[in-house]
Design brief:
The complex is a heterodimer. Chain A is of the alpha+beta class. Helices cover 51% and strands 10% of the residues of chain A. The two termini of chain A are 34 Å apart. In chain B, β2 and β3 form a beta hairpin. The chains are: A alpha+beta, B alpha+beta.
């Protein structure tokens, strides 16, 4: 059943459950590793594409599902929970922005670039198109990006200028960009991915702590470990709340909403990854154990689209311009 | 895991209370300096609590027949948020409004409800919680103070300590042993309402490191209490206390205790026009965390509004919230002292030092950090 079908109704659970089932079926640890090791992307992508979810944010009159950000947020989180090896969320955003600009939408996965040239772009290694905002314009690049040289990473950079070599690639101006929209959306997506992966890691770590026996009892009975795991749960829940909060209001999210989400989740990402590894011990470091599929992503997602300090600076700047008290400021600048 | 904590919005009808309570809160706040306002919910004024009571802002969630407004948990959230945001003095009705009144409503006899609840709603009665004893801190089930049945009611002996409001309280709801011994732990505990003016009650205020005396030690020496001093069921004290904790731990007082300092610091930055990148990042970090903590506190409020008792989730919000409250004075102190060439007023310095010195109490009162994290770990399925 396609997302766009009328009979799916508008109840989020009706979308989330089939989406989760799809991801569980497609993004097995073997499939994720195959993509990371340079295997073919197309068969997986065809399954995602034919599900119709890629047009979740495209308005109904343009053939999409016309979902809101709040509707889509759980889907993004599910992508993080399943360590997505494909830019599914990114492509949802790109297709919505392209549709809004009245532009033709290319087939295939699309990555989103929000930093300077030469900075890592998540998933750019396996896409033919990268969407970016440059000098107030929305630009769709068709180019081959260069492997960034980190094992397992799907991020890539473009070092060559477009057109510098024959057949290197092209850049198409799509239209005037809604300033910051792409960056705010990308950061908000990244926050949701972190929240999802953080949830998965918390579950994996709690399960492992109950199984692993040392000193004659499960290590989860050690108070020292329990205290650290409680902090992990706090970071996980705060990340989820922050990501939900940023998606609860306008499309695209405001600076305050995007900054809050990416700041909180980026700060939590490194800590969640650290505790997951600390509890798992040496096995968690090994390639063959699945923990690394999630912790590597947490770190890369933290660095993508601006870390906590980047967004904190922007949010701090905006906050200092306001004469409101802090409680009023957050109440008025966030959707809830 | 913890899926039942999700975003919740304050309903419009409760949001509508904001202008009226804001006017009262600001009126109280403008009269006080920031270091006084930074006492937050330790700031004590019977006059202000009675003023709030007369305007219908105390006991909001209680039924109208007892003087309440029959509003929900979100209405209380709005009122409490407005009061704490500016540091209005709320201690004189705080505990009664937050947990004693709901406890009396839930477990009390009709006579107890009719006597206490209207007075609480008028802001007239100062309640305190008699839990800690010299030998019972985090290990609350080890309380030794006893109430024994007599022909006329109860005879009380023992001692409570670190009792907030003890020095000017009217009543204490005390957790006492009514049968068995200390070895029986949670069994044999009951809650009794103790009139602090009864013969045999001795109250000794304890001065804290800031010079305030907001808590006290209280001695019971053959205190005779009537039959109806018992609240709820005999022997059910532990269960009743546990139910109270969800009210005690999830509220916005666990995220806003340092907010007066935060705002005083931001005003200073705006005044001197300082916007170095480390400062901007710090302001942004605090702002982001405050926004998300508020959303989490609202999510707990939604569960209270549904009549649930989110004990684990409340522990999670309290631990995260008090960590934030405690980091504020440390980071703000560093930020201000990293610019020694900048003049800062005595008021900001006093506020900073007050919050710095009292901040350790944020993760002691209402359950220590270590106890809360143990509750969270059990909620995660760790045993």
């Amino acid at each position: 059943m396609r997302v766009g079908d009328k009979d799916m109704g508008n109840d989020m659970n009706e979308f989330l459950e089939p989406f989760q089932r799809l991801l569980e079926q497609l993004f097995t640890p073997e499939a994720i590793r195959a993509v990371e090791q340079g295997g073919p992307v197309d068969p997986l992508w065809q399954d995602i594409s034919s599900s119709g979810f890629l047009d979740a944010l495209v308005p109904e009159q343009q053939g999409g599902a016309g979902l809101t950000l709040a509707d889509v947020q759980p889907l993004w989180q599910a992508l993080g929970y399943h360590a997505s090896p494909l830019p599914v969320g990114e492509t949802m955003i790109a297709r919505a922005l392209l549709a809004a600009a009245g532009a033709a939408i290319p087939d295939g996965p699309i990555a989103l670039a929000t930093g300077a040239r030469g900075r890592a772009v998540p998933y750019a290694l396996i896409v033919q198109h990268v969407l970016m905002e440059l000098d107030g314009q929305l630009i769709l690049e068709s180019a081959t990006y260069d492997d960034i040289g980190v094992p397992g990473s799907l991020a890539a950079v473009r070092l060559q200028p477009i057109g510098a070599q024959a057949g290197y690639g092209s850049a198409e101006v799509i239209g005037t960009a809604d300033q910051g929209a792409l960056h705010h959306l990308s950061a908000t997506l990244r926050a949701s991915l972190i929240a999802g992966a953080g949830q998965r890691l918390t579950e994996m770590t709690a399960a492992y702590a109950n199984e692993r026996v040392q000193f004659g009892k499960p290590i989860g009975r050690q108070q020292a470990l329990q205290q650290n795991m409680a902090v992990m749960a706090e970071d996980m829940v705060a990340s989820r709340m922050a990501a939900e909060l940023a998606c609860a209001g306008a499309m695209p999210p405001t600076l305050a909403a995007a900054a809050t989400a990416k700041s909180i989740t980026s700060r939590a990402a490194a800590r969640i990854a650290a505790t997951a590894h600390a509890v798992h011990g040496a096995i968690g470091i090994s390639e063959q154990y699945d923990l690394q599929l999630f912790t590597r992503r947490l770190h890369e997602w933290r660095l993508a689209d601006g870390s906590e300090s980047y967004w904190n600076r922007l949010l701090g700047q905006q906050r200092l311009k306001s004469s409101s008290g802090s409680v009023d400021y957050v109440r008025k600048s966030l959707p809830f | 895991m913890f899926d039942n904590l999700s975003l919740a919005q304050v309903p419009a009808e409760d949001e509508a209370l904001r202008p009226a309570i804001r006017a009262l809160a600001e009126q109280a706040a403008t009269a006080a300096s920031a270091d006084i306002r930074s006492r937050s919910w330790s700031g004590f004024s019977r006059e202000f609590s009675q003023l709030l009571g007369s305007r219908g802002f105390v006991g909001l969630t209680l039924p109208k027949q007892y003087g309440g407004a029959e509003k929900g948990a979100f209405a209380r959230f709005v009122v409490v948020e407005e009061l704490l945001a500016v540091g209005a003095p709320v201690a004189a009705h705080w505990i009664a409004d937050r947990q004693s009144a709901p406890l009396i409503l839930h477990y009390g006899t009709e006579a107890q409800r009719e006597y206490f609840l209207p007075r609480i709603c008028r802001g007239e009665l100062v309640f305190c919680i008699g839990m800690s004893e010299p030998g019972s801190g985090s290990d609350l089930a080890s309380v030794r103070s006893r109430a024994e049945r007599t022909d006329k009611g109860w005879r009380l002996n023992g001692q409570k300590i670190w009792t907030t409001n003890g020095a000017h309280g009217d009543y204490m709801i005390a957790l006492l042993r009514t049968s068995g011994t200390v070895d029986d732990r949670q069994k044999g505990l009951s809650q009794l309402i103790v009139d602090l003016k009864a013969p045999g009650v001795t109250v000794r205020p304890i001065t804290d490191l800031t010079g305030d005396a907001h808590f006290a030690e209280i001695f019971f020496d053959d205190v005779e209490l009537p039959e109806d001093a018992l609240i709820g069921e005999e022997g059910q004290g532990w269960q009743q206390v546990t139910a109270e904790l969800a009210f005690e731990r999830s509220g916005s007082e666990r995220i806003y205790s340092s907010v007066v300092l935060l705002d005083a610091w931001i005003k200073h930055l705006q005044m001197v026009g300082r916007d170095d990148s480390a400062t901007l990042a710090l302001v942004g970090d605090f702002t982001a965390r405050l926004g998300v903590l508020r959303a989490m506190s609202l999510a707990c409020t939604a569960r209270l509004a549904r009549g649930e008792s989110p004990v684990v989730e409340a522990s999670l919000v309290k631990d995260l919230g008090t960590s934030f409250e405690q980091e504020l004075p440390v980071a703000i102190g560093d930020n201000l002292a990293s610019y020694p060439e900048e003049a800062i007023g005595a008021e900001l310095y006093q506020t900073l030092l007050y919050v710095t010195h009292i901040a350790p109490s944020f993760s002691l009162r209402g359950g220590t950090r270590e106890i809360l994290r143990g509750i969270i770990a059990r909620g995660m399925g760790l045993r």
